[in-house]
Each structure stands twice: as structure tokens, then as C-alpha cells.
Write a structure and sequence with these properties.
The complex is a heterodimer. In chain A, 38% of the residues lie in helices and 22% in strands. Chain A is of the alpha+beta class. In chain A, strand 12 and strand 13 form a beta hairpin. In chain A, 52% of the residues are buried. Chain B is an alpha+beta fold. Chain B has two domains: 76 residues, Ubiquitin-like (UB roll); 69 residues, [2Fe-2S]-binding domain (DNA polymerase, domain 1), CATH 1.10.150.120. Helices cover 33% and strands 13% of the residues of chain B. Chain B is built from five helices and five strands. In chain B, helix 2 crosses helix 5. The radius of gyration of chain B is 16 Å and the shape is globular. The mean pLDDT of chain B is 96. The chains are: A alpha+beta, B alpha+beta.
Chain lengths: 289, 160
Amino acid sequence: MDFLRPASWADALAAKAEYPDAVPIAGGTDVMVELNFDRRRPSALIDLTRVRDLSEWYEQDGLVRLGAGVTYAQLISELADQLPGLAMASRTVGSPQIRNRGTVGGNLGTASPAGDSHPALLATGAEVEVESVRGPRRIPVTDFYLGVKRNALQPDELIRAIWIAPATGPQQFSKIGARNAMVIAVCSFGLALHPGQKAVGTGIGSAAPTPRVAAVAGAFAGNALEEAGLWESRGELPPSLAREFGAQVSAAAAPIDDVRGSAAYRLHSLSVMARRCLVWAWNDYRKAA
Amino acid sequence: MRINTTVNGEKRQVDNVWEGESLLYALRERMGLPGSKNACEQGECGSCTVYLDHVPVCSCLVAAGQAEGREIVTVEGLRDDEERLHPVQQAFVEAGAIQCGFCTPGLVVAAHDLLERSEDPSDPEIREALAGNLCRCTGYEKILDAVHLAADRLSNPGAL
């Protein structure tokens, strides 16, 4: 096995082009588990922690450009205002030690359906900036997840950044697990209100082969709120609307039975989490008037 | 491969490091520092917690090669130059926060980090800060006592 330590992004791309089956490693919270348990023996590791700009973020073109190596701890301390949904999800990741190392770029690289950052990225319509020596491209996050732990990266590509619109309305995240700390989601749900577009963004985690949007449910809620004039009046959310939204989110999922929970439990808990997230976010929206 | 790091203030060079091995393995098996414990090897238990460039991390999830040129402090590095226990370590001993002791090094480092940031942490703050460290013996109550005791002593260094 080789251990490559590129000092710049250009060097990292050159290394990935030369060793297409090399595994990039940043926080190591997924990669090292596979190495420690003999599940994976790549030809090389590419340590990305020396590529300094990967751990930086800035705003450009009205979007937050989040370097792939920004840790959950950074997100919580620096980006809770701009990206509240992602910051909420970040607070539920692992433990302090894991949040000090784990990155959103790594979550996307692993592409586990249970990754905690995915619902927030889906609900806000994020884009993933990837690059190889052949050039860069931006992939809508909805197109990024291809299957269980499979993503749209080509063998020579690395994830460089995630582009996310700063919040224009309340956002929420909910996650079910056996305990509070250090838990892999049984299932999870992210929601973002976009009052400018009168739209409701959604993201389902750990209840299908990939993280996915509940598009029908989001459109239903956005339209129902518009028809009742609620975006303008900021009136109370009808309980029937919240319940129906929950049911439609659940209908968008395709969960399985596994060690963490049954498909039936996931469908039920998703409908509850979606309903609650909409109520919480809507109550915040009303208070913000 | 060879790695060069600073561990507990001392420059260390180790050879024959396997490219896929963890910092925890390198510390324990190659540098003679068995204080950090190897339990779950998947970041669940916190027994291997060390400082990496002043940030607490699970050393089982850091590739040894990633530590090149970095500064590491392990539980062994918390005692002072005269080999006296750090007040956090002393408080764990006195409060009975140790039974089998396997989780203790990680808890000591995590508690040390908390008290660097917070002079007088509340119970919920302590629980949150130590959420990444599992103890199967104590039930945590005496660990909370130890953190409060250490906080008292660190903010009143003269008092007994």
C-alpha cells in the first residue's frame, strides 16, 4: 500500500489520476474503520488533510462554498446561521471526537444512505463540486447518490466542495436512533422552508437505497400552504396538512428491515418526523414575522 | 514508511509503519505509549482519545501517516515535569471514577479538553463533552463527580 500526501489540490488530482483505485482519506471516520477491520485493502491512501483550502468555506455568487474537508465541528461553530439544517444534522453526528474529524465531503464520498448530512443537502438543493485532471464539474446532490454506498464520482475524481444556498427560512432535522450520542440513524429527515419560492425542501435518510427527496410531499406542502395564503398570513399550520405531509414523505421512502430497525418502523417514524419538522419549522416561520 | 511526529513534547521518528495502520497502533506498538487504549477500533468508545494538533480525536481513526509533522498529546503527556498527575487525573483517582480503568485514559483526555474550554461546566455540558467515551463499569456518576472536583481545583489552584 502507498500513502500519498499531496500538499496541494493539483497534486491530489494528479495522485488520483495515477492511482484511480486509491482511497482518499480526510477525517478517517469511515475509511479507517474499513482498514481496521480488514474490510478494505486499497492500493493507496491519499491523505487530503494537507490540502489546506479543502478545510475552508466562503460565500460566492450568493451560495456557501463549503470545502470538502470542513469538519462537522467547524460547521456547528461557524455556519449555524447560514446553514441551520446542516448544522443541526452535524450536532447529531457521532461524538465530539468524531465531529472534530468527520467531514461533509467524506459523508458524500462514503454515500451511505444513513449519512447524517444528506437530508439537509437534499432539502437545500446543494451541488457537489468534483474535479479530476480532466476538469471540474458540478453535480446536483440529487444526482450524486447512485446506490448503497455508490456515488457519481468517476475513478479519477475527488470531491472538492459543496455549494449550498444559505437559509432564507427555517430549517429542521430529525433523526431516530437507539440513543442520543454515537448512533447511526435508523432513519432521518431534513426540511427547509423556502418562503421566497413558497417551496418546502425535503430529504429522507436511511429509508431507501440512497438518500432521497420526497418531491411529491414537498410540492404538496408548498402548494397547500400557498392555496391557503399561509406564506403571506403566517397563519397556523392546519394539523391535517402536517399529517398528510407526513404520510406523503413516508410514501416516498423504500426502506428495508435491517439490524437497526424494521421497514415498518422506518415508514412510521418518517411520517412522524416529517410532520414534526414541518410543524417546528412553520412555528419558527410564524415567530420570525 | 517512516513517520516523524511530536508526541508529548518530544520529537519521535518511527520506521516500518504500515501505510494502513492507525495512529493508535503506532503509539501503542511502536512508540511504547500504551496509555491510549484499543477497544472498538471504530470510533465508538473513545478509549483511544488523544490530542492531534490540540484537538481531541479518536486515534484509531487517524491513519498513522496523517500524523506526519503533527503534534500529539496522549494521556501520558498530561502529567507535569515532575511526573505528578494532572488535576483531572488526580480527581479521577480520588472520586472513584475508575473501576476497570480501560476507558479512563480517553475520559481523562476528553475531560481535560472540556476543562480547557469551560471553567465550571454543568452536568449537561459534561455529559455532552464525554458523550464519545463509553464506560461500562461506573455508571458515569463518579466520573461527573471527578470532573466537578477537577474543575474546582483548576479554578482554585491554592485550595485543597
